Amino acid sequence: MTERSADAGGRPEGTAAVVIGGGLAGVTAALRLADAGLRVTLLEGRPRLGGLAFSFRRGELTVDNGQHVFLRCCTAYRGFLERISADHLVTLQDRLDVPVLDVGHRSGRPRLGRLRRTALPVPLHLAASLATYPHLSPAERASVGRAALALRGLDPADPALDDVDFATWLHRHGQSARTVEALWDLVGVATLNATADRASLGLAAMVFKTGLLSEAGAADIGWAAVPLGELHDVRARAALEKAGVRVELRTRVTGVARDADGAWQVDTEAGPGEAGRLAAGTVVLAVPQREAHALLPEGALADRSRLLGIGTAPILNLHVVYDRKVLRRPFFTALGSPVQWVFDRTHSSGLAARSGHGQYLAVSQSAAQDDIDRPVAELRARYLPELERLLPAARGAAVRDFFVTRERTATFAPSPGVGRLRPGARTDAPGLFLAGAWTATGWPATMEGAVRSGRSAADAALSGLGRAGDRPVREAV
């Protein structure tokens, strides 16, 4: 076994930090610690950074494992993009505009509705859109306004809200099953990765208050204009290297423990027979909750087993390459169909530059418990006809490729009661901190929550070291 200090500069181990996990939380923590003057080593078991928001090659295409979006109110993630010099590689709507197609309309033809905002202040910014939203009756539209006003009065941090499911609250406030489907779940499933009946009221209130009821532009939608790997791996790695962070990929952590002198010892394995050990004064565990449970030493967290009570929820993505253009919008969402959200990924994948014709669509299916294990052939038979129902131009178009990406543990499950299970950044062991979207960020499992968790873990570590003021920390991260 090779033993070394995480501080390659030979300084005391108390000035060295090891971050375990190279997702958004770990990269954020590593950058923040390095910006404050610590020597940082980041360890990642995969051959890349980015966690569950990454890209891969399929033939000539560069494919994202799933469609990831952010909102204008995601200030931490947007700051992260600035920190890694990638903010110019994303698209952000000038104003929220969501096309909503309903294939269950009486005419039998898809009916288009829009959820969009004006420049008016909250809550008037959505009033015109709601008043003309064709997928709800006038009475249902009026009930939405009353529920929104009641929602504004909730405190998402109130522990009592965590024990109630969102659907129960919606029904108590006059929301019909159609209203839940056509509005509340339309937004909630995509942001919470759960339907209203499976979502904590506290988390749902946080999403809707922050996104739709805080500032007029808060819910404007953004997405990557390039493959996610360009952002979360290539650009992130360049920023880490420039900050002086040592990045070790394909390095699995097998144990974390304190020695008799109080220093942290991190055992690693980079391959068969390639065991090593790093010594450091600070360790940030930025891994999923089950991995964190396995690595946390005894006594580091009261009732460590509660981490195992934080469930997971799947996301399924269907990738369809047509021989011609079938969608003229960057994205849309659907009602009356198993299809949820559909995005045009032609340009970001590189398809447009190579073929000059054809189109690549990504169908993003959150809360996909019913479909996550279906065979590809069955998913193809289920979803291609649905896309033809929604997109008349797809009828008769040849499908050049159809493939599936599955993230069975894409997010933590935002179930009622999950709030009391999510730990904060600090543990009971000095120098050991937790990060990850599943920790107590107040947010659901989003890129924003992941970045916020990394920032919280780094700030807690710096506070414990008395180093917060040693060097200006970039507030963007």
From TrEMBL:
InterPro entries: Amino_oxidase, FAD/NAD-bd_sf, Flavin_amine_oxidase, SQase_HpnE, Zeta_carotene_desat/Oxidored. SUPFAM superfamilies: FAD/NAD(P)-binding domain. Its cofactor is FAD. Transmembrane segments: none annotated. Pfam families: Amino_oxidase (PF01593). The keyword Oxidoreductase applies. Gene3D superfamilies: FAD/NAD(P)-binding domain. FAD binds at residue 253. Residues 24-461 form the Amine oxidase domain. It comes from the Bacteria. Keywords: Oxidoreductase. GO terms for molecular function: oxidoreductase activity. This is Phytoene dehydrogenase. It comes from Streptomyces caatingaensis.
